[in-house]
Design brief:
Elements: H1 6-17, H2 21-37, H3 42-52, H4 55-66, H5 71-81, H6 83-96, H7 101-109, H8 113-125, H9 131-142, H10 146-159, H11 172-181, H12 188-203, H13 211-235, H14 238-241
Helix pairs in contact: 1-9, 2-4, 2-10, 2-11, 3-10, 4-5, 6-8, 8-9, 12-13
Length: 242
């Protein structure tokens, strides 16, 4: 097989990230609309999207603040939602940890669900890629996603309340996460974590300020880690497992 060039790998990333446009566009428009309806002006809405660049956390904080939740609860909830970014970073470190500080900082900023989901699958499938090749793919995935996030957040903020109530843009959030998560549910640990998070989210749905989601998320991570440990122990030879 011919050696892949950095340029061709970059365009692989662009192609892999392109399907997410179908949900990024309505999702970002929806956030712009919701933010302005909640009382943010265009500058505040855009600052929110550019600085945070994490849709789920942005919606979480905005919804809680709109419901009158204390600022501390909104911040803690948004941070909890984004705890997965720490796990994403730890997972990507073996592949791009040798990059320069500036490259790592830029990759950290653009580590979103879509870029991580595409990158980790591709990195595992191509262990021979160099760090420049991995970064080229990663930023290729980002290219059709993050600029459109900014642009269509601005569109939503400018359009604001003129969008008809019957236009169901809120379908974008669940579809985005299903598209990213479903292909990754390959191991017992992934499945156990997913089942735990869903079950406990329903059990603790009565708690105020979406605190049930925090409990479900922490419990799911613990269950997933424990299941992975059990699977690894069972895979060891009998003598090594002792």
């Amino acid at each position: 097989m011919p050696r892949q060039t950095t340029k061709s790998i970059y365009w692989q990333g662009v192609r892999d990230g392109a399907p997410f446009i179908l949900v990024i566009v309505p999702f970002s428009v929806l956030f712009g609309v919701v933010a302005t309806e909640a009382g943010l002006n265009v500058l505040e809405t855009m600052s929110f999207s550019v600085l945070v660049i994490a849709g789920a956390a942005q919606f979480t904080a905005l919804q809680l603040l709109s419901d009158g939740a204390p600022t501390a609860i909104a911040l803690i909830s948004a941070l909890a939602v984004n705890l997965r970014m720490a796990m994403y970073s730890a997972s990507l470190t073996p592949y791009i940890g040798g990059a320069t500080l500036g490259q790592r900082a830029l990759a950290a900023y653009f580590t979103v669900d879509q870029s991580y989901a595409c990158a980790i699958v591709k990195f595992e499938a191509n262990p021979g890629w160099s760090i420049p090749q991995r970064l080229a793919y990663f930023f290729g995935v980002v290219t059709p996603i993050c600029p459109l996030w900014y642009i269509f957040t601005l569109v939503g903020a400018l359009v604001g309340t003129s969008i008809p109530q019957g236009l169901a843009l809120d379908f974008a959030l669940p579809i985005t996460f299903l598209a990213m998560i479903a292909p990754m549910l390959r191991t017992p640990a992934h499945l156990a974590a997913a089942f735990t998070s869903v079950a406990l989210s329903l059990v603790f749905a009565f708690l105020p300020y979406n605190l049930g989601l925090l409990i479900a998320g922490v419990a799911a991570m613990m269950v997933g880690a424990q299941v992975e440990l059990i699977v690894e122990r069972r895979a060891l030879p009998a003598g090594d497992a002792q």
